[in-house]
Structures are given as structure tokens and as C-alpha cells.
Amino acid sequence: MDKKTEEFYVRLKEELSTTSSWPSEYLYKFIVPTDAAKIREVENAFNNLGAVISTHQSKTGKYTSVSVNVTMSNPEAVIEKYVALSNIEGIISL
């Protein structure tokens, strides 16, 4: 993980710690190239967590947005999911 990414996660953790009481509902938003395997990989990362997942394909069909609404236990758990999914080629975390 590069220094800029690491600094982002440190700031995110601080912000989540001060703005929410945990456990708390968190909304993840991702953009992935429209590829069933990549979309399934994002969805599978939230299996057994009671997540509500919705997808929406872009107008051109090249990309799919994936929104995941899930209750997370703490800010560290939120960041762990972002880090775990960052290895998916072409994924953008919003």
C-alpha cells in the first residue's frame, strides 16, 4: 500500500470514529468494469453479513456501480473490506 493510500485510510478511520457510533450501518460504493466475475467477487466479500447489495450498469455498459449497505462492527472492519477489495482489477472505491 502506498503512502497516499495509507494516509487516506488513517483519515477515514479517524472520521468514522468521530462521526458514528459503532456498530453502524455503512454504505460502500464501488465502480467496476462490467464483468460478472468481478461483480460477483465484490458481492461475495459481503456474504453472510446481511448486506443489501444493488447494482446499476452505466449507459454504455462498460461499468457497473455496486452499492453495499451493511452493518459493520467498527471503523477497522470498514477499512479491511476496502483493502480486501482493492486487489480487484479496475475497481474504484467511492
TrEMBL record:
Organism (species): Flavobacterium pallidum
Superkingdom in the source lineage: Bacteria
Protein name (Swiss-Prot/TrEMBL): DUF493 domain-containing protein
Organismal lineage: Bacteria, Pseudomonadati, Bacteroidota, Flavobacteriia, Flavobacteriales
